[in-house]
């Protein structure tokens, strides 16, 4: 494949935050009715002004700058004293040991960790099992590495108490040679958590077929009432076959510092560090200091944050469920909700553009996550509560206006 | 190639800053004499405690944090108002227009820019012309992209008034199908600047053969007295065939913020943004604010910084040239010096380890930059002046001790 052809497949125009680069084009001819007034809400990412960064994060950053060269130039895999502080906390959270020296790497955001993990395990032509729907970058990472994608369906809308992963499809993928399985838990965009049984089955299958599992647990700390969360790495699976990715960028609103961490397989972490050395050298030196606030928040702060998000979720569910034809699964963790809209007279992608133009509501089109999700949209509801609810109501009103 | 085989070729153990991961092994058996006392100097990178960050950089970072979400979530290619501030300054410096909207991208460090540029132009099997010696990551980037490297020799030790690039070899590489040429100017590790004639010849050859040139000009602002610097992008070459990379990470001692910029070809910048979206999303949002100090330093501050580096260079040259058998080219820009040592009884790589153990002096082995540079070592002399000179003297003393 030529480099031009490779990049033509990797679109980002509909990616979150990139709306500014879209051309309005001929959307005007599709418009019905007048603009709905209201404060703009950008559901494509969380609002760090509504949910502000962890208390003390700026102060530890400042201390990092003051520490000077020692903090600016760390090992490529990150400052050892920070890794040593984090490892026990992460081990306790995930229920399995973490080796600070050889089994973890600090990265520029969880996106950085995800890229390094995939590019360190997938060579040209390798088969990779990827969930649909799942985080849009997963597919693009496999395409960039010129891997062969094997989609695994997740029927999240028609099940309860589980994510709805098609385990038969996953086994078939392993049987036909997939050596890597990549998924997010909680799922991005659907906000569902894999059941303990599903996680156990993934561990059993991956062990049986000797596959590596990369699990993106970015939102696993933002867990709602009554939900049981199972960590894959704590199940019966060879520790060298699992890479877990987390980061303080979302729940903690620390995205502006670009921090992520990957931990698990020492062999893969070693490759990831080699690659980081030529991709970005290291997570920003001063920013690394901000990790000191992670799993180290003031007492009660995280509980409060989870409760506030749960209250927004409840109100959005109400708004969507009150309108005929919406199908939506209750978010179990994280701040994404992924309603399926009723049948409209315009395509899902056009509706997303109309929503921005006529209602000042920015959402991410479902096709970013699965080819069959054209009728769904993703909202990150880590927003000002009242503004989010008002925006969801405008969305519902516009859906009514454009029904087929 | 399997992913394991691919990564086995990409070593980083001898890379700058990674000494902590080396095993001491059997080096003890090679040691002669006692330890030389003196303050440790780590020449593998600049000392940001000796040369501190641009005045005002922390203050604009702080303002970035205070700006909140707007600064945390920018376009993947970086905040537009920052690009608009930088573009005219960079255009003036390099002598050719820069398009803030479509012709530039902000990246996590210049390493980030270099990775994106190479991975956006080199596909599996593509031929790439790479200078020897040159920045060690260049070779590794081509290996990661599974390109085919075509080495171009630079005879920097035996020429004056030019870098000594073998233009015949470069033309042969283009003739045999190389579509990308990658080089640093000033050269890292040798500190030499390409003559105007050499730059003109590169422009002519690349234009004739339709090749893309990626030029890493990271150190081009740290230019010493009497040296003429030619910017490739200002020569007669199609602007769509050039990507120029710079950053405020070195001369300005802002490495801890991880900032770089690439500008030029709109088609390639578009690909680089698509790739950045899955590699790291964006340069750290708050860190991007620090760009506001770039090309915007207090009056006289940059001149003073250049003079101070030139004074250190002069003293190091004196120290090396006073010792028989050293060959060293005068650094013309940047803070690297790359002396060739006299014949020793130990390998270059072992001497580097001995130097660290017996003299508390850390340098980067020449083999990181070219396979034939085993007898050279690279020093980044952006250090405390007195400590750097004392360390260079210990290096000379150890060379005497280990002469063949």
From TrEMBL, chains A, B:
<dbReference type="GO" id="GO:0030170">
    <property type="term" value="F:pyridoxal phosphate binding"/>
</dbReference>
<protein>
    <recommendedName>
        <fullName>aspartate transaminase</fullName>
        <ecNumber>2.6.1.1</ecNumber>
    </recommendedName>
</protein>
<feature type="domain" description="Aminotransferase class I/classII large">
    <location>
        <begin position="43"/>
        <end position="393"/>
    </location>
</feature>
<dbReference type="InterPro" id="IPR015421">
    <property type="entry name" value="PyrdxlP-dep_Trfase_major"/>
</dbReference>
<keyword id="KW-0663">Pyridoxal phosphate</keyword>
<dbReference type="GO" id="GO:0004069">
    <property type="term" value="F:L-aspartate:2-oxoglutarate aminotransferase activity"/>
</dbReference>
<keyword id="KW-0808">Transferase</keyword>
<dbReference type="InterPro" id="IPR015424">
    <property type="entry name" value="PyrdxlP-dep_Trfase"/>
</dbReference>
<dbReference type="Pfam" id="PF00155">
    <property type="entry name" value="Aminotran_1_2"/>
</dbReference>
<comment type="similarity">
    <text>Belongs to the class-I pyridoxal-phosphate-dependent aminotransferase family.</text>
</comment>
<dbReference type="InterPro" id="IPR015422">
    <property type="entry name" value="PyrdxlP-dep_Trfase_small"/>
</dbReference>
<keyword id="KW-0032">Aminotransferase</keyword>
<dbReference type="GO" id="GO:0006520">
    <property type="term" value="P:amino acid metabolic process"/>
</dbReference>
<dbReference type="InterPro" id="IPR004839">
    <property type="entry name" value="Aminotransferase_I/II_large"/>
</dbReference>
<dbReference type="InterPro" id="IPR050596">
    <property type="entry name" value="AspAT/PAT-like"/>
</dbReference>
